[in-house]
């Protein structure tokens, strides 16, 4: 027993020495809570050169981690086990974070480059006055199509997807809000609908679409469409841009009935240890040259008007990805419908998926 106790004491002492050494090493490298910035973002959603540039200009060490869904991000931040100074959630997730007191207000005086953001993308329903979030990227949900595979057709409406000539030609993104929203819009309803009669009508409408649906898939939708495994896909505009760069036969359209306009914004989680550094980073990313460089790398639409002027003319004038106000006014942001209604959307979507099988 005495030897066992001695062994535990030795392990404890060695662990303490290693921890002390690591702390000293970090100190000698200049890394502490005030000069480390922990960023939590979507995968491949920032130009890595900008992180290097920010570190050089600010003297702050960036620790960068990624997530693949708003739900995964929310769970990690709610648990509080890991401290993040900056996160990049989507609109409805931001509303949920505000509601649950998971973010701190942003001091807009410390973000003078906020003046570069297009007023269309400020003061939106999920964060009035942008008290808690700053626009990062935005886009739409729409239709990618390959005329060669669908008999020369050019879909302009959600209703076009129900054409019997498109049997086994459609790939759907695996998202309840996106697919239910598509069906709701096709019937002339809001994609934030909560009326049960209208929701059931949307589900029944999806059941009628089943013969045309080849598969309901995740990220592989990009590869499948680029490789011409299907003629149509319901996707996010940023994915559409990437797919089209791989195959010149593809095109993208925002349906005329309307659709979702989404926003990914930067927030400061409540557990942040480096709030000053977070403000520095936000302002850095809103610098026109930096925002333009980031948009070039990521391929999504920038809300930064000053940055937009720095992009290639063919990019900034492409109305598929930078639609004018007349179009964006017809689009809706996903609202935070609450846990029960969101669960109901998921249930209806699952019923459709099971019917498809």
Report on the structure:
It holds the Pfam family SBP_bac_8. Keywords: Periplasm, Signal, Transport. This is ABC transporter substrate-binding protein. By secondary structure, the protein is an alpha/beta fold. The protein has helices spanning 2-28, 48-58, 70-79, 91-99, 176-186, 196-209, 221-226, 237-246, 275-285, 288-298, 305-308, 313-316, 325-328, 338-356; strands spanning 36-42, 61-67, 86-87, 134-146, 170-173, 213-217, 232-236, 250-253, 261-266. The strands form two sheets. Strands 4, 5, 6, 7, 8 and 9 form a six-stranded mixed β-sheet that branches. Strands 2-1-3 form a three-stranded parallel β-sheet. Helix 6 runs parallel beside helix 14 (338-356).
Provide tags for this entry.
alpha/beta; 9 strands
Secondary structure elements and pairings:
Elements: H1 2-28, E1 36-42, H2 48-58, E2 61-67, H3 70-79, E3 86-87, H4 91-99, E4 134-146, E5 170-173, H5 176-186, H6 196-209, E6 213-217, H7 221-226, E7 232-236, H8 237-246, E8 250-253, E9 261-266, H9 275-285, H10 288-298, H11 305-308, H12 313-316, H13 325-328, H14 338-356
Parallel strand pairs: 1-2, 1-3, 5-6, 5-7
Antiparallel strand pairs: 4-7, 4-8, 4-9
Helix pairs in contact: 5-6, 5-14, 6-14
């Amino acid at each position: 027993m005495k030897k066992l106790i001695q062994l535990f004491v030795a392990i404890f002492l060695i662990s303490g020495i290693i921890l002390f050494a690591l702390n000293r090493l970090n100190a000698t490298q200049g890394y502490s809570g005030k000069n480390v910035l922990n960023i939590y973002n979507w995968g491949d959603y920032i130009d890595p050169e900008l992180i290097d540039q920010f570190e050089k200009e600010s003297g702050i060490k960036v620790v960068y981690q990624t997530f693949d869904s708003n739900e995964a991000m929310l769970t990690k931040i709610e648990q509080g086990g890991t401290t993040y100074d900056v996160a990049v959630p989507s609109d409805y997730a931001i509303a949920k974070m505000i509601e649950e007191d998971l973010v701190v207000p942003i001091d807009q005086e410390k973000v003078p480059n906020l003046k570069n953001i297009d007023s269309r993308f400020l003061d939106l329903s999920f964060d009035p006055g942008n008290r808690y979030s700053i626009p990062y990227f935005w886009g739409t949900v729409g239709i990618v199509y390959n005329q060669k595979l669908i008999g020369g057709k050019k879909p302009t409406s959600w209703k076009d997807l129900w054409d019997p000539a498109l049997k086994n030609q459609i790939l759907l993104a695996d998202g309840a809000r996106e697919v239910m929203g598509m069906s709701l819009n096709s019937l002339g309803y809001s994609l934030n609908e909560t009326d049960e009669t209208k929701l059931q009508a949307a589900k029944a409408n999806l059941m009628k679409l089943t013969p045309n649906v080849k598969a309901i898939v995740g990220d592989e939708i990009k590869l499948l469409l680029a490789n011409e495994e299907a003629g149509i896909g319901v996707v996010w505009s940023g994915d559409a841009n990437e797919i089209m760069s791989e195959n010149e036969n593809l095109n993208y359209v925002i349906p005329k009935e309307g659709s979702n306009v989404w926003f990914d914004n930067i927030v400061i989680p409540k557990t942040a240890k480096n709030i000053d550094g977070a403000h520095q980073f936000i302002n850095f990313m809103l610098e026109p040259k930096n925002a333009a460089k980031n948009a070039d790398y990521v391929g999504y639409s920038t809300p930064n008007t000053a940055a937009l002027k720095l992009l290639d003319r063919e990019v900034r004038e492409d109305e598929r990805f930078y639609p004018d106000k007349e179009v964006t006014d017809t689009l809706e942001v996903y609202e935070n419908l609450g846990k029960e209604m969101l669960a109901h959307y998921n249930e209806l979507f699952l019923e459709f998926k099971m019917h498809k099988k």
